[in-house]
C-alpha cells in the first residue's frame, strides 16, 4: 500500500465526515461503480426470473437477499482506484469470482442482516481475513463507531423512497388511456404486471444506492484505519522526506529537517519503546521526574474527601451479583445466537433445495436452443361464469351429459355441452376469447375462425343455450341427447386427448 | 303477453314473441329506410328510442337527413310532427304555447305550442338559452305542459328528437349534464357511404322540384296507439337478473373509470335496460340478452359521461372510453 498515492485527503474524521468522504468517492466514480453493480446483479435477477417466472415477489426477494454478492467488486475496484490504480471493469469482472466467492455463503446466510455490512466488508474483501482473525479485527476497528449502522438505516430509507418515486413516475408518465394501471392497485394490490413494473423501480433504486452504501462503509473503514495507524502523519512525513530529498543542494536544511523529524517521531510515537531500549529503570524514573517537574505538566494537588466504608461493602456485594447476571445474560445471548445460526443454516438449506427443485422443474424454460413448449394463447379461466379449463370437465363429457339428462338436470347438461364445445375449440383451434365476450360474440369468433361443421354445431347450440340461460326455456330431453351425440361426433377425442 | 280489453299488455311475459309484433317493429324500421337512405344505425337507434319511450339527441353536421328521419318516422306511425328551430331569442312560450285574448269570443283562449305533437324535432337545441331548453326538457320529463296554471297532458307516443351541431359552437348554450341525462340516447349521424349517398341523391332528385323533403315512399304502417302498445310490450320483456347485474356493472365501471370525471348515475342503468329491452324487441326476441345491453350501451351512456380535461385535450371521446369499458367488463355469469 503506497499511502502517498492515496487520492483523498487523509485526516482524522468523525464518522459522519467519513461517510461524506465515501459519498464523494461514490459521486466521483459513480458510473464504473454502477456498471459493476449492474453487471453482477442483472444476471442474478434474470436467473431468478427464469427460475420463478410466475412468482415476481419471490424474484425480487431473492434479488434483494443476494445484495452482499454484488458489492465486493465495487469495493475492490474502489480500493484500487483510491491508490491511483485504474483497473478496467472487464478485468475486475474476470477476477469477480475470486473477489465474491470467499465467504459468500456466510454473507448470504447469517451475516445477511448484519447492519455493519458495509464497514466489515473491507476486512473480508481487502484484508482477506476470516474466522477469528476477522472477528478480532472487526472488534478493533469497530470499537466505538455506529456510523455504519446509521448508514444502513438511512440507505434503506432512501432506497424505499426511490422505489416509490420510481413507481409514481411510471404511473404519472403513462398515458391516461392505459386504464389497466391504477395507482391504488399499483401500490396496494399489485397484480402480476404491476409487480414486474415495480421491479424496474426496485432494481433502479438498489443500483443507485449501492455505490453510496459501499463507499460510505469504505470511508468509515479508511477513517478508522487512519485513526489507528496514523496514516495522516505517515503521509505528512513521507511528503516531507520527498521534498527534502529533492532539495539536495540545500544540505544543511535537509539535515535540520531530518533531525527535526526524527525528534518528532521519537517524541510522539515511540517514546516508551525507545526509552526502554536505551535507559535503565532508575534512569528512566529520574528522567520522568525531571520532565514532570516542568511547568508544562502542571502541579501536583492533594484532595481529601470522605469515602463511606459501608457503601463500599454493599457495592462489593452487588458486584458479584451483577457479574453473575451479566455472565448469565451473555451465556443466554450466545446460546440464542447459536440457535439463530442453526435456524438460519437449516432455512438456507431448505431454500437451496427448493431453488434446485424449481430449477429442475422449470429447466424447459431456459433451454435456449431446445424446443420449448408451444406458446400458449391467453385463455380466460372462466367465461359466463363457467370454468374454462379441461381439468374442471369430466373425462367423458358425453356420458356425463347423458347421466345429467337422465337425472332431469337439463340445464347442467346443456351447460356442460356448451362449455365442453368452447374448451374443445379453445384447445383445438387456439381461439382467443376475451372475458367480456358475450355468447353472440363467441359465436362470431367461432364462425370466423373455425368454419365448417364445428361452427355449424356451435351456431345451433348457442341460441338454445341463450334461451335456456336468459329466457329460462328448457329444451326437451331428446333435443339435448341429440346435441350430446352430435357433440361426441365432433369433439369426442379433443377434450379427452387434452386431459 | 296478451292485449287486454283496455288495450294494455298483461305483465306476464310470453314464451314466444308474436309474429305480428316482430313484423310491426321491423316493418317500421324498413319503412323509414325507404325515405332515409343509408344511416341504418341511426334509424335503428331512433326506433329503439321510440320503443323505449325515450327521447333522442342527434348530433351531426347539417344536411344529413335529421329532419327527413323524423318526418319519415311520423309518416310511418301516422303521428303528428312538429319542428322547432331553436334560436337565441326563442321563448319557452314559443314551444309550450300561451293564453291569448280572443276578441270575437270575448274570452281568453289557449293557443297550444308546437310541443303538442307526437314527434317533435328540436333543431339545434343548443342555440336557445337555458330557460327555453329547460322548458322543453321539463315537457320531455313530465309528458305534460302547464299553461297559465292549467296542465295539459301530451298525446302518446311523444318523442323528442333534438339535434346538435358539433361545429360552429360560438354563441351556443351547451346542454348541462343534468339535462343531457334526460335523453335516453345520443346518436351520432355521420356522412353516408359512397354507395348510400349515390342512392340517396338519385332517390331525392328523381322527379323532384326544388329541395322539398320527399317522404311519399313511406307508408303508414302503424297507428300511434299501436306504438304505445309496442312500448308496453317492450317494457314487459323478460330480463334475467344476470342481465340487470350486467347493465349495472357496466354503468358502475364507467362511473369509476380512470379518465371519467363524471360518470353515469342510476338513471343511466335504467336507461340502459330500457334501451336493451327495445333492442331485444327489434331483434325479434322476447327476452333480453347481454348482446342487447352491449349493443345499446354506447348510445345510452356516451352523453352521460364527462371525460377529464386531459383526455379531451388528447382528442379522446366518450365512445373510445366506452369501448375500453365494454372490453373490460365481464359478460354475465350464469
From TrEMBL, chain A:
Task: Respond yes or no to whether keyword Metal-binding is given for this record.
Answer: no
Q: Which UniProt keywords apply?
A: Membrane, Transmembrane, Transmembrane helix
- Asked if Amino-acid biosynthesis is a keyword of the record, the answer is no
Residues that span the membrane, as ranges: 29-51, 57-78, 149-174, 203-222, 249-269, 336-357
**Protein's name according to its UniProt entry:** DUF4129 domain-containing protein
Organism of origin is: Sedimenticola selenatireducens
